[in-house]
Specification:
It is a single chain. By secondary structure, this protein is an alpha+beta fold. It has one domain: RNA polymerase II/Efflux pump adaptor protein, barrel-sandwich hybrid domain (OB fold (Dihydrolipoamide Acetyltransferase, E2P)). Helix content is 24%, strand content 34%. The protein contains five helices and eleven strands, in the order βββββαβββββααβαα. It has a six-stranded antiparallel β-sheet with strand order 3-4-5-11-10-7. A three-stranded antiparallel β-sheet has the order 6-8-9, with no helix packed on it. Strands 1-2 form a two-stranded antiparallel sheet. Strand 3 and strand 4 form a beta hairpin. The longest helix has 15 residues. It is globular. The model has no long low-confidence stretch (mean pLDDT 89).
């Protein structure tokens, strides 16, 4: 199945989503890569600064792994999975602060965690089709039009 698109907003089919947190999850072996959805990066606007939490520590579901400051918003990047924070994309954002605005599902990933409660917390994540249905309604209700930052 191909990625789904609605008013410029991309929702990849091959990811899992925490809809309440606007975070995507890519499971890979014993790790999970996390990032902001296209809708989240659009609503926040162009990023200007990120403060990262310390790696090597465990964080509970819902806790912040970073504080994001954008042109429109300051707030947390929450983890949808309890576990050890093993890596943040600090180098990627240092090279291009708008990397998540340009490529939210690729080079703009935010963090890698080693989930410790995946069996229990997996039920709170939805697949691409369910996420698309949710975001399509959200996009319509809130008149969202996704975009990518240009140079």
């Amino acid at each position: 199945m191909a990625d789904q698109l609605w008013h410029g907003c991309v929702i990849p089919d091959d990811l899992l989503y925490d809809l309440a947190m606007n975070v995507w999850v890519r499971l890979s072996g014993e790790e999970a890569v996390l990032g902001m959805t296209d809708v989240a990066q659009t609503m926040g606007g162009r990023m200007v600064q990120i403060s990262w939490k310390k790696t090597g520590r465990s964080y509970a579901r819902g806790r912040s792994l970073a504080v994001i400051e954008s042109a429109k918003w300051v707030g947390p990047f929450p983890t949808p999975l309890t576990g050890e924070l093993i890596e943040v994309n600090e180098a990627g954002f240092a090279a291009d602060i708008a990397i998540a605005n340009r490529d939210p599902y690729g080079t703009g990933w935010m963090a890698r965690v080693r989930p410790s409660l995946l069996a229990e917390e997996r039920a709170g994540l939805v697949g691409g089709q369910a996420a698309f249905e949710h975001y399509r309604a959200f996009i319509e209700d809130n008149d969202v039009r996704c975009y990518r930052c240009a140079d």
